[in-house]
Amino acid sequence: MNAWERGGVRAPHKPLLVLLALGRLQRREARLLEYASLDEPLARLLRTFGPRRKSYHPEYPFWYLRNDLVWEVPDASSYTLKQGGGSPPRSELLARDARAGFTVEAFRLLDADPTLLREVTQLLLDEHFPESIHDDILAAVGLDLGGWTRRARRDPEFRAAVLQAYSRTCAVCGFDGHLSSGPFGLDAAHVKWKQAGGPDEVSNGIAMCVLHHRAFDRGAFTIEGDLRLSISADLVGSTIHALFLDLHGKSIRPPHAQKDFVRAEYLEWHRQEVFLQPARGS
User: Fold this and answer.
1) Residue 222 in 3-state DSSP?
2) Element of type H or E holding 28
3) Which residue from 249, 158, 244, 241 is spatially nearest to 206, judged by alpha carbons?
4) Is residue 278 part of a domain?
5) Could you tell me whether strands 99-102 and 71-72 are parallel, antiparallel, or unpaired per DSSP bridges?
6) Among 169, 64, 135, 133, CA closest to 274
7) What is the tens place of the pLDDT at every residue in 27-80?
8) Pairing of strands 182-183, 178-179
9) Is residue 205 packed enough to be buried (19+ CB in 10 Å), middle (13-18) or exposed (0-12)?
């Protein structure tokens, strides 16, 4: 899938549309889907799992996914394209009751082989999103993998090196749970996602408990260049003060060695591409 990209900017439009369509297929809905039925659900997925933007355009993947040869818009040549652009305006898609969906061949293959559908789903998740938020995405698009999973390979040395650099302690809250077999509930969180080209290097990792790792990957908080925590104004709840709100403006626990500090460029990427701005109190 040729997802648009430029300088590390995230554009998960096509993957999210395909996942949404796979959920509809799994629920035995029609092959061709009305744009009107996809417009708000896809915009909501972009707001939830994509970077914060001034506006969202679910009409773009609906139209441009045709270029990947697994999606079709019947009578595409009859639509009036925007001046200077390669797609019709959203208003025309709605007014003309536009429909689109997987090609007949792709639909038949996916419909006939549940394992193939699961493999395609897992591949899309692995290539575009960190594992910590896969279940959230599956729930949002209504896909059920039935316990089936074939995760992408991880680098065990990355996790071990990051946890060692941070003394096997969550850099955010200080959680350091251990069993006789070793630490539990601790992850090595990538600051710049692997899916966006982030490396498996300690300078791109922070030790976090599973809760703060998941919240970090969902953009509930970020880390400023001086290692202070910024909590998103989007985060609300009656029990989040001690775990999140009280930490706003405080510094994370740094690694022992200067060489292991997170590089500024990775922190900046997270602030721009993942963090749900604005920060609390700004």
Assistant:
1) strand
2) none
3) 158
4) no
5) antiparallel
6) 133
7) 999 999 999 999 999 999 999 999 888 899 999 999 999 999 999 999 999 999
8) antiparallel
9) buried
* Alpha carbon distance, N-terminus to C-terminus of the chain: 38
**What is the tally of structural domains in the chain?**
2
Helix (H) or strand (E) holding 37: helix 35-49
How does pLDDT run across 16-25, given as a tens digit for each residue?
999 999 999 9
Q: Do strands 99-102 and 186-190 pair parallel, antiparallel, or not at all (unpaired)?
A: unpaired
Radius of gyration, alpha carbons of the chain: 21
The domain containing residue 59 runs over which residues?
Answer: 13-141
Q: Are residues 103 and 161 in the same domain?
A: no
CA angle 180, 185, 189 (to 5 degrees): 130
Closest listed residue to residue 45, CA positions, set 137, 118, 160, 183: 137
pLDDT digits (tens, 9 = 90+) for 253-264: 999 999 999 999
